[in-house]
Amino acid sequence: MPVSQNLKWLYANRALRSFATAFLTVIFPLYLAVSGYSAARIGMVLTLSGIISVLLLAGVGIFGDKVGRKRAIIILSLLSFLGSLVMATSRDFWFIVLASGLGGVGKGGGAGSGGSWGPLFPAEQPLLAEAVSPENRTKVFGRISFVGVLAGALGSLVAAVPELLHEQGISWQTSYQLLFGFSAVLSIFMVMVAWPIRESRSPHAMRSPEADESVPINVKQLTGRLGLTNALNGLGFGFLGPLLTYWFYRRYGAGPAELGTLYTIINLATAMPYLLSSKISQYLGAVRAVTYTRTISIVWLALMPFMPTFWLAGLSYLLRMVFNSLGMPARQSYAMGVADKRYRSRVAAFSNLPSQLTSMLSPVIGGSEMESFLDFPIYGAVFFMTLNVLAYYFAFRHIVPPEEQNGPHPTRHLTHPVVK
Q1: Which helix (H) or strand (E) holds 185?
Q2: pTM recorded for the entire structure
Q3: How far is it, in rounded angstroms, from Cα 407 to Cα 415?
Q4: Three-state DSSP class for 117?
Q5: Euclidean distance between CA atoms 84 and 99, whole angstroms
Q6: Residue 40 in contact with residue 324, Cβ under 8 Å?
Q7: If you write DSSP's letter for every residue of 380-394 in order, what string do you get?
């Protein structure tokens, strides 16, 4: 099977994962709340389950480069299956922590992200990059995110099911647990669509000692710079994630039906920006595209606490996600474009490990502070995401990916030799 044929299977896998992530992100903290968990205890669950996600992320980075990225996707899908089954059958604190960590609950990036994060990320991204030419790489990254957000829009609608079931006399806990069971079924389908994927090179070839001289920065430099910027972003995102749905619940009294509707609208609104990302990247260059779009998204996030109603706050969050979506494919494609092909899984994993680690700190801090200052997570996210944008620009403004070195855009004159 030609490598390019992998795209349809990768698209299908992302669609299934995004569909499940969309409703799990909404219902998981609400399920814990109706089960008697306080805000601080919800934050603790997210922090501890994040440790499991970090271990999985590191394992996929090493396993993907050495043994195979397709195999990593299949194994993670099976672990997600087990995690969903446990959440469908138990409310015990430690079982919930283990299950949410294995299932990747809250690790898909939230509404509008297209399910583009989590432990599966280091296996998926290199397979996408090797399936197309450098010139089309950002376009493909945009398309898979487009597929993801559309699937996520449908998944967000499913978040309203517990409320519908509760109106028919079924308990809240049982209603939520039924959706966890549905997530387990989706995990089996993820295994099925990953099975036909073919990798262009064997694990032995990927371990070849020959250096890739075409990359503009070596692996250690790239991983270190990405790690620093992602650590700051992780601190910011950790204040949001599933805690954001709890913020809407506490601030405006929004239930699962309202939140599901909002997230559906956000997913639909953020679909087209993913397709426009490659055009913006071609015009501005990847680094400037990421910097400008993220700056605007932070402004809209900062305005959320000033909104008097749920739907106005939701509109502000929607605009934050639209501008964030414009730069996301460019950021992901850029990292793969400047990375040594042999170590793309490792770069994707270990450059994102700091983000996973720092994002574990924020939920427990944000959850605790919400008891006395409800808007604390929003302001914490704004602060660290602003630092992330500044660090990213200064770290990569002179590092040009292959497709930009001769292209008609403002960065073409910044070509530099490989950073040793």
Answers
A1: helix 172-194
A2: 0.80
A3: 11
A4: coil
A5: 7
A6: no
A7: HHHHHHHHHHHHHHH
Question: Per-residue pLDDT tens for 24-64?
Answer: 888 888 888 888 888 788 878 877 887 888 888 889 999 98
List of residues 6+ apart from 167 with CB closer than 8 A: none
Site of tokens 């138990």: 90
3-state DSSP call for residue 160? coil
The sign of the CA dihedral 347, 349, 353, 355 is positive
> What's the number of CA atoms in the CB half-sphere (13 Å) around residue 248?
27
Find out whether 403 and 200 touch, Cβ atoms under 8 Å.
no
pLDDT digits (tens, 9 = 90+) for 218-276: 889 999 999 999 999 989 988 887 689 889 999 999 987 888 788 878 878 888 898 99
Q: For 273-313, what is the HEC assignment?
A: HHHHHHHHHHHHCHHHHHHHHHHHHHHHHHHHHHCCCHHHH
Listed in sequence order, the residues at least 6 apart from 122 whose beta carbon sits closer than 8 Å to its beta carbon are 57, 60, 61, 64, 69, 72, 344, 345, 346, 348, 349, 352
Angle between helices 93-103 and 39-66 (to 10 degrees): 40
The answer to whether the CB of 246 falls within 8 A of the CB of 371 is: no
- Rounded Cα gap, residues 30 and 95, in angstroms: 17
Distance CA 190, CA 240 (A): 27
Residues 6+ apart with CB under 8 A from 58: 349, 350, 353
